[in-house]
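Tutorial handout. Part one gives the primary structure; part two gives the three-dimensional structure as tokens.
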Amino acid sequence: MDITVTGEGSVLVAPDTLRLHAGVEVRRASAGEAFAAARAAAARLGEALRQAGTAPEDLSTAELSLGPEYESYPKVSAYRAAQGLQVVVRDVSRGDHVIDTVVGVGEEARLHGVAFEVAEPGQALAEARVRAFRQAAAKAAQYAELAGRPLGRVVRVEEVAGAPPVPMRQMAQTLAAESDASISPGRQSLTVQVKLGYEFA
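Part two.
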């Protein structure tokens, strides 16, 4: 006879990496013109970002599209072409500078959103595992006491996939108040869930 319990541990961390989704979009009378214009605008955007200090390996194509826009079907009014770019910014304090660089490319530039990440979450996850294990162990001890049985050794440990990182907005507001930055990383909660199996002694 044994007892199975679960525990959860979370650690708040400040993201240190920004992932910016940007790109270019153009409309032209023909598909060929639209595609060529989008490729040229994307090349200007990539070069501007490299000149601003972004490493080539931190730039990757995230979208490529071309299609007609209809005035009234089947009459085509124009062709729309877009090329997206994912930019990894390894210093979040440079976020505004990188965004300004994208906007400075011209009217073709588009911003599609940002995401913050923790580049090296290993230490925080290790602490979250400690907290999860301790919580599960405390539960097991309580259940054993309630059952009137002495708790034996751990016979099974299973890490359960936890929830994705959750932004914590209270710090985001504080950081925004302390600086002129238009974006703020806030904090993320890194969570680990563990399942423990114990024998009764």
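Part three, for discussion. Helices lie at 31-51, 95-103, 122-147, 169-178. The radius of gyration is 25 Å.
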